From TrEMBL:
It holds the Pfam family POR_N. This is 2-oxoglutarate ferredoxin oxidoreductase subunit alpha. Keywords: Oxidoreductase. PANTHER family: 2-OXOGLUTARATE OXIDOREDUCTASE SUBUNIT KORA, PYRUVATE-FLAVODOXIN OXIDOREDUCTASE-RELATED. Residues 467-560 form the Pyruvate:ferredoxin oxidoreductase core domain. It comes from Gordoniibacillus kamchatkensis. Residues 202-441 form the Pyruvate flavodoxin/ferredoxin oxidoreductase pyrimidine binding domain.
Amino acid sequence: MGGQQGEGVESTDRIFSTALNRLGYYLYGYRHFSSRIKGGHTNNKIRISVKPIRSISDDLDILVAFDQETIDLNAHELRKNGVVVADAKFNPTMPEGVQGRLFPVPITAIAEELGTSLFKNMVASGASWALLGLPLEVFNKAVEEEFGRKGPAVVEKNVEAVRRGAEFVLELAGGPLSEFQLEPADGKQKLFMIGNDAIGLGAVAAGCRFMPAYPITPASEIMEYLIKVLPKFGGTVIQTEDEIAACTMAIGANYGGVRALTASAGPGLSLMMEAIGLAGMTETPVVIVDTQRGGPSTGLPTKIEQSDVLAMIHGTHGEIPKIVFAPSTIEDCFYDAIEAFNLAEKFQCPVILLTDLQLSLGKQSSELLDYNQIVIERGNLVTEAPALEENQMFKRYAFTADGVSPRVLPGTKNGLHHVTGVEHGEDGRPSESPVNRQKMMDKRMEKMKHIKVRNPILADAKHDSPDLLIINMGSTSGTIDEARSRLEQEGIKTNRVTVRQLHPFPAEELKPHIEKAKQVVVVEYNATAQLAQLIKLNVGHADKIRSVLKYNGNPFLPSEITKECKELTLVWQH
């Protein structure tokens, strides 16, 4: 469904998807939108299946168009015999060479007959729902939930708009289109959410009770979710004046013992770098979410990219222990948020949860979450400190075998110590001693040897010696798996490994997969092959590694990855 931003495309998609979710279908959504509040082309795509799906499709069955621009931009994606449901108001025409059927529906006219053009979204939804042959009563229930707070009269008008849109298009088409009839879904309850909401829910489950943040696309939904939810658990959200304040407030809250996180995108993370260094030097836990988007500078605020990887690993001046890991599914977003807080406190260091715009904002089906998996680990947190001799302070930064020192919260009896961003001794007092400096650096960096996230890599390795190993991170796993299915049909044996732990890099886990493969392709959204660089640096085998890159702001299609992998395979064979 496409039109001008501000026409209600997003709310219409929400109702349509909610109704499908209630029937038990698996859904995968993608939202194309401009970086402005109103105006400019926008479209929402929803893919529907009776089986789990984690990718957008190469093509379209039904295109709902509120303007000619939508047809001009998207009609080429139609399958043969695909359908365009267009508002008759703008006298729609099909581009030359497009093999699709055009159904002009007086969408605006019907809406205005009902009292206002605002109803046109429901007219269009009713038309597309009817073509799928789905029961209107399910859709009407979703309409009631969306507009119920506005009163029964508004609900009744919207339901009537749905009915009239359905009736008109069915008369044009001669009934539901047989080729678009869906198999019955399993009817089982599923979650349907964006990654940002899953991260927010995971943060609450982890015991997070404070979020300072500055709004930025595509991270703002985490803040918006927690604004509604945290107060119910005694927590709060503060909109700060900038990302510097957001990060330092989160560090301060964690120092005080309150689990806190902040979230931003590339420009905001650039501003946080000095504060992240402070957390590393003072060994204060903090969780930061980076929802990657197109850069540099303001770049492409509403488009996908994975170009912050090296910046998140190496961005701070000086050297600190740091954990960077990347979820790849909605479920990962929930469980990884919990793990991020546990890791931050266990290793007393910054943890960066690295998502990308599609995972952050793409709405997807998810199986129900298992709350029995939730475990809270506070690390080496001392509640009873030993008595101190006169003029002594607690050894907050004591040298230990694993680099993790005992941590006390402010107010703990006998826990008095100094905290500073300059180099310091075991009790926190500033120290410029070369001997102490080297020992303290070694202590902090020792932590890196012991860090391992849950599932540092996820391997789908059904072949002992694959022709092709495809490596990825983030949201591309589902798209790659569709491409692999097509490659397998053409006789190319493939395995996939999704790298979740980016720093410290899981070289030992990844190495055997690379060694068993004849050739390796790394798929990522950036221009400089940042994940491939990490693999070559930490694992080697640069001679067999090639990259498939995309950085125009649009997500990979399964056909694109299939084509690129086939071409690379042919080159290697010759």
